[in-house]
Write a structure and sequence with these properties.
The chain has 199 residues and is an alpha/beta fold. It has helices at 21-24, 78-86, 99-107, 117-128, 156-164, 168-174, 176-189, and strands at 6-9, 11-13, 64-66, 91-94, 111-114, 133-136, 141-143, 149-151. The relative contact order is 0.16.
């Protein structure tokens, strides 16, 4: 996955609460075996309205989504994170998330930021007025051109993974030498495990 340390630009002032994964990506899209193109189906039911916020010209390419409480609730589907990422969003800011969605987001290179409702309200106002928002993962801050500065907490391991672009496969490959040594030691100490097998 792509590393992420800073996200700057327009933000989509969505703000809706209890947006479940079926709203983020409808179930009919779960048959796909590729992540490519899922952005076109992201928030499909909302985008049926021609005046929807996601297709507004001023939000084209916006890398930040501001959402409401309990974002990503509902069924566990990694496709929800894939669709948001394919839409071009690298950071989501909300008061709370479903744990499963938050985990899937991080594993796919999306930064889920938790801020109190008062901060969300202010960022929604800034975004609606067309101003940019800056997210800095290194300093764990969200700032605006008006000297607003909001700090957020993030698990240190998640932060490490996002800044270094490490998904679960990359983390495993990073330990390849240690895994190889373990396999050699295990084979030597418990040779009966491999008896009769061909390598």
């Amino acid at each position: 996955m792509d590393a992420i340390s800073r996200v700057s630009g327009r933000a989509i002032a969505f703000g809706a609460k209890n947006i479940d994964t079926d709203i983020i990506i409808p179930a009919k899209w779960l048959k796909t075996i590729t992540r490519d193109g899922l952005g076109q189906a992201a928030f499909e039911t909302i985008r049926e309205d021609p005046d929807n916020i996601f297709d507004a010209p001023e939000n084209a390419g916006a890398p930040i989504l501001i959402a409401g409480d309990n974002f990503g609730c509902g069924s566990s589907r990694e496709h929800a994170a894939w669709a948001i990422l394919d839409l071009g969003i690298r950071a989501v800011i909300a008061p709370s998330y479903s744990d499963i969605f938050s985990g899937n987001a991080v594993k796919n290179g999306i930064l889920p930021i938790v801020l109190p409702q008062a901060a969300i309200d202010r960022l929604m106002e800034v975004a609606r007025d067309g101003h940019t928002i800056d997210v800095d993962l290194d300093t764990q801050t969200v700032t605006t051109p008006f000297q607003d500065r909001f700090t957020f907490d993030i698990d240190p391991f998640r932060k490490h993974c996002l800044i270094n672009g490490l998904d679960e496969v990359a983390l495993t490959l990073d330990r390849q030498e240690a895994i190889g040594q373990y396999e050699l030691q295990t084979t030597a100490a418990q040779s009966w495990l491999t008896a009769g097998t061909q390598v």
